[in-house]
Amino acid sequence: SAVISQKPSRDICQRGTSLTIQCQVDSQVTMMFWYRQQPGQSLTLIATANQGSEATYESGFVIDKFPISRPNLTFSTLTVSNMSPEDSSIYLCSVEGRGTDTQYFGPGTRLTVL
Amino acid sequence: GQQVMQIPQYQHVQEGEDFTTYCNSSTTLSNIQWYKQRPGGHPVFLIQLVKSGEVKKQKRLTFQFGEAKKNSSLHITATQTTDVGTYFCAGPGYGQNFVFGPGTRLSVLP
Asked: Closest-CA residue in chain B for A100?
């Protein structure tokens, strides 16, 4: 399994601002995934990030709101733009297990928007 | 689109009692995975089932994949307080998407 770190672990932000979340993996991976988990809810995939190409967004998520960077095979960022209280959630990055399609998750970033 | 459902939503058991959560997909799955999320933690991969009718065990946990590959179950024998958390099933969706069930939240009373 991969070791995944995320920064920040938590943040409290004001409405209308933006926050960039970083995800670092200890090994090279082709795909990285960004999920959102609202309080008490399941995980919803925001987008899939491949190195060297545009991220693929799921229905209901758009690049202007959640721009993603993937500059190399071990790092990705997710920005939550023009935040509103509805964006308060845990944001998790994940990677696939090598040779499998299982998921390994980072510790998550707990975001509160006031 | 594909839907993955789980029942029950919540389960409260006394320590030592058994627990089962059920997962149902609207479509046939090539595989199904189970994850555990402790309170305040992140989801942790438990197991993957691939074959029709497959049964796998991990100590007190027994995982089963249905013959039609549309349902699965997780059974915990003699629950312990360390089993507390939310159990999610997940399956591959279209493309690289993964579809997670809503989860079953287990609480264990000592």
From this structure: B48
Distance CA B87, CA A30 (A): 27
Average pLDDT over residues B22-31: 94
Residue B49, SS3 per DSSP: strand
Q: Let me know: does A15 contact A113? Beta carbons within 8 Å.
A: yes
Q: Which of A42, A101, A103 sits opposite B101 (nearest CB)?
A: A42
SS (H, E, C) A64-96: CCCCEEEEECCEEEEEECCCCHHHCEEEEEEEE
Give the amino acid at B27: T
Residues of A whose CB is below 8 A from B96: 31, 33, 48, 56
CB B12 within 8 A of CB B107: yes
Residues facing B86 on adjacent strands: B37, B105
3-state secondary structure of B85: strand
Per-residue pLDDT tens digits for B44-102? 999 999 999 999 999 999 999 999 999 999 999 999 999 999 999 999 877 667 889 99
Write out the residues of chain B at the interface with chain A, using a CB-CB cutoff of 8 A: 31, 33, 35, 41-45, 48, 88, 90, 92, 95-98, 100-103
